[in-house]
Amino acid sequence: RNDETRTYAELFDHGNRVAAELIERHMSRGDRFATLVRNHPEFIECLIGASISATVIVPIDPRTRGEKLTYTLNNSESRGIVCAPYSLPQVVAVANAVPSLEWILTLEEDAGDVRSDDVAIADSFASVYARDPKPVEVRLASPDDPLQIIYTSGTTGDPKGVVFSNIRFGGAMLGGQMFGWTPDDRPYTGLSLTHGNAQLLTFAPALGMDLPVVFSRRFTRSRLWDITRKYGCTIFNLLGGMATAIYSMPVQPIDADNPVRMVLSAGMPREIWRDFEKRFDLEVFEMYGAIEGGMALNPPGVGPVGSFGKAPPNLDIKILDESGVECAPGEIGELVSRPIGAPVKVEYFKNPEASKKKTVDGWLRSGDSCHTDEEGWLYFDFRKGGGIRHNGDFINVGYVEKVLAEDPQVTDVFVYGVPAASGAPGEKDVVGAVVAAGENNFDPQAVFANCVRNLEPNFVPSYLQVVSEIPKTASEKPQERFLLDQFAPDAAGVYART
Q1: How far is CA 395 from the centre of its chain?
Q2: What is the pLDDT of residues 205-248, one digit of tens each?
Q3: Which residues, at least 6 apart from 98, have a Cβ–Cβ distance to it below 8 Å?
C-alpha cells in the first residue's frame, strides 16, 4: 500500500475540519467520542480536532471487541465513533448495547473487506475533508481541560479510564530533549497510538521538536529494519518482550547496517541487553512509565544493565514496604512517585474511589514491586498482586477465562501466568489450565483458534495445560502453586499454540 504523508500544516488543517465536524454533530465541550483505528493519519487529526473543539477522544485498540468494547464505550458515554472498515463489524455488533451512541464515521480504506449492510449505517470520514476550511475558534477554557481518556488493560476487574489533560500532552512535547534527541533524528514506532507509549515517547516529542516521524499501522518485527533503512529512522521504541522477539530472528550479515542509533525501551531483558546493542549497532535508553504518571530514566552508558533508571529532577520516587516505610537497597517493595513538593493527581473517569486509592497520602501507587541497589538505581521485580503483564499489556484473566469456559471442549478453567520465555523483566506468558470435556479427543489448536477469534492478540494464551481437575481450596479458590508445580513447556498435557 502507498505511504500516507502529512505536513504539520496539513495536520492542523485537517484537525480543524475534524473540530468543525464534531461541533456540527452537536458535540459539546467535554463530550466524548471513541476511535477504533490503527496508526492512520486520521487518528492524529482526531486528536487535534478534539483539542480544538474541547471534546474528549477515547482511543480504543481496534482489536477490542465484545464485552470489553461495550464496557469501554458505555463507561466513557461515547456519543460517536471513528473507526476503520476492518473494525466496523465489531462496532456494529455492540452498537445496540451502547445507548449514548449517536453517530459512526468510517475511513475510506479497505472497504471491500466490510459487508455492505455495515457500511450503510456509517457516514464516510471523507465528509470531514470536504468541510469549509475556515478556522474554528478554539473552545478550550483551560490547559487542564481533558484531551482524552485512555483506558487501562483491566488487570483486576473492569478497565479504568485515565483522564488525560491537554497540558500533559503539551508537557510530553518537551520529551525529545530529555531523551537526548537532536534536530537530525527521525523517530519511528509501530506501537499503537491508542497506547500512551507511542503517543508520549514518539508522536508528542517529535511534534515538539518539529521532526519528521514515521508510523507503521502496526508493529511487524520482520519489517522493522527494512522500514528504518527505507525512511532513515534513527530512533524507535520497544515494550515488553518485543526486544526478545526481534533478537530471536535469524542473524543477518546486514543486521548492523541500519540508521538506528538509539532504542527507547521499557523492559529490555538484562540477558540480551549488551548483545542487542552490539548486534544492531545501537544504544538502549531504558525507562519506566505508566499512563497514570511516574517516570524513571536510564540513558545509554549511565546506569547499570537491568535497571530502568532513576527519577528525573522534577519527580520523587520511593520504594515502600507494606507499612509505608522506605525499603533498604535490595529490599522489594511498591514503587511510588509524586512531583517534587506536591501531591500527585490522578483522575479515573467516573471512579473517584479508584482515584483516591491510587493516590493514597499524595503518592502515586504504581502496583509494581521493585527494588533499588546501593546507588539508588531502580529495578523491576514483578507486578504487585501477581498480575499478568504480557507484551506490555496487563491481562484481565476474566476475559480469557470466559472465552475458554464457553468452549465446548472445556469444562473448567483457570488462567495464570508463568515467567515469559522472552526473559523480559516482569513479563509473563499466559497459561490456560483447562479440564477437557473429552480428554481423548481434545483438540488444543481448535481451542487456540477460538481464542484468536474472540480475544485481543496479547490475551490469547501462550499455553494450554490440560489437567484432570483445577486444584482448589475449600472455598473453591484455585490453587495456582500446584498448577505451577506441574507446568513445563514440554510437560505432558501442555500444548503451545502453533
Answers
A1: 11
A2: 999 999 999 999 988 888 999 999 999 999 999 886 678 778 87
A3: 70, 73, 74, 78
**Strand, helix or coil for residue 40:** coil
Going through 321-390 in order, the beta strands assigned E by DSSP cover 333-339, 364-372, 378-383, 388-390
Rg, the chain, Cα only: 23
- In whole angstroms, how far apart are CA 385 and each of 334, 342, 418? 11, 28, 14
Residue 288: CB partners within 8 Å, gap ≥ 6? 266, 294, 295, 296, 308, 309, 378, 380
Burial of 109 (0-12, 13-18, 19+ CB in 10 A): middle
Q: Which position has the grid cell 508510523?
A: 215
Contact 306, 379 (CB under 8 A): yes
Q: Which of 172, 176, 167, 178 is nearest to 345 (CA)?
A: 167
Q: How many CB atoms lie within 10 A of CB 436?
A: 21
* Residue whose cell numbers read 470536504: 130
Distances (CA, A) of 35 to 26, 122, 134, 496: 18, 14, 25, 34
> In this structure, what C-alpha cell is assigned to residue 71?
464496557
Scan for cell 475458554, then name that residue.
404
- Looking up cell 520529551, which residue turns up? 175
Beta bridge partners of 56: 32
Question: What is the distance between the alpha carbons of residues 143 and 399, in angstroms, rounded to a whole number?
Answer: 37
pTM for the predicted model, two decimal places = 0.80
> 413-431: per-residue pLDDT in tens?
888 999 998 888 878 999 9
* DSSP alpha helix (H) spans, 175-252: 175-178, 196-198, 204-209, 224-231, 242-247
Distance CA 138, CA 82 (A): 21
Helices (H), 59-107: 66-76, 88-95
- Residue pair 398/358 in contact by the 8 Å Cβ criterion: no
